[in-house]
Structure formats: structure tokens, C-alpha cells
Amino acid sequence: MYIPKHFDEPKIDVMQTLIRHYPLATLVTLSADGINANHIPLHLTDDGSPCGSLHGHIARSNPLWTDFDPHIEVLAVFQAENAYISPSWYATKQQTGKVVPTWNYAAVHAYGTLRIIDDLAWIRRQLEAMTEEFETGFPEPWSVADAPGDFTERLITQIIGIEISVTRLQGKWKVSQNQSPENRSSVIKALRESDQPAMANLVTEAVKP
Question: Where does the UniProt annotation place the signal sequence (predicted)?
Fold first, then answer.
């Protein structure tokens, strides 16, 4: 991923927070037919390593688990909020007119080795851990145990577990850091007025000293 210096986010904890908040990953692997991409929610797990590991599951009918090279890195792409930035939002537009449109976004690339786990007990634990995290905050959190046991056991046999041992993370926060203070302020104002508070918050956080 191309990352100009002012858009680089090197802090592992910040990148891991994005992964936890936006767990739907685009998982890129190399198959016999070439590059393949699957959209899979992945649960970040602390395994004692610097970057952690990503756990998830796929349908047993998905060829991903039998058609990849275990010796080649896989890439999981996580993306947070994104927004079109209009030139008309820049305070300097009235002064010079030298402004152009752009797109703001925050993304994390997680690289690592993919392991297939065909173990019903592991898959159940993975489902329980993922569900518990994603259900947190709901008035009436659902758990795997809420479903009939025979129903759950039958479904578990139809999926396969995946684990990615993350070896490195890259973070890119392209959120107007290359603009002047007055332009950043005007962008934040315009984002809030256009009902895009999440991106406004990202721009605000990025400009803090």
C-alpha cells in the first residue's frame, strides 16, 4: 500500500482498534486461478504476539480453504469510514481557487499466514467468542447457546475455521492531514453539516498535536 509520510499510522494499538470496530475484512489470497478475494468478518485475538491473530470461519463449500498456498502471505484489508471531500469545503477556495476533490479514508492492511482449522470444538469456541464481542452493548445480547443445540451442531459441521497469524500491519489514515489548519477546520465543519460525524471525528483526531 502506498503511504505518504503524513498519512502513515504506525501505532499497532490504533490499527487494532480499527480492526475491532470494523471487522469485515476483504481477505486476499492466491488461488490456482490467480488472486482471490473474500469478504469475511474476522475476530482479532490476543495471542501474545505483537500483532495478534485473526480468527473467523467460512462455508465448507467455499473453495478458499482448499485452494491457497500456505507458504504465501495472505492480506486482510479493513476499512473504516470514508468520505468524498468537495473542493468547495476548503476555506482557501475563495482565496486562490487552487483546490481539487479528494477522498478521505482510514484503512489497515494485515499480512500473515493462513491456517485452516477443521475442528468442531475450535469452531464453536470461535463462534462464541466472536458473537460475544459483536453482541456487546445490545439490550438483549444473543449467544450461541440461545439456539437449539442440534441446530447449532448441524450448522457448525457446514463451516470451516480459519486463523491468520498476523506478521505485520500497515495503517493509512488519509484524513486531510496535508491541508492547512483553516482548510481542515472547514472540512470538519462541512462533514458535520453533511451528517458525516465519524469522518469529521477522524479529521479532528488527526490534527491534534
Answer: none
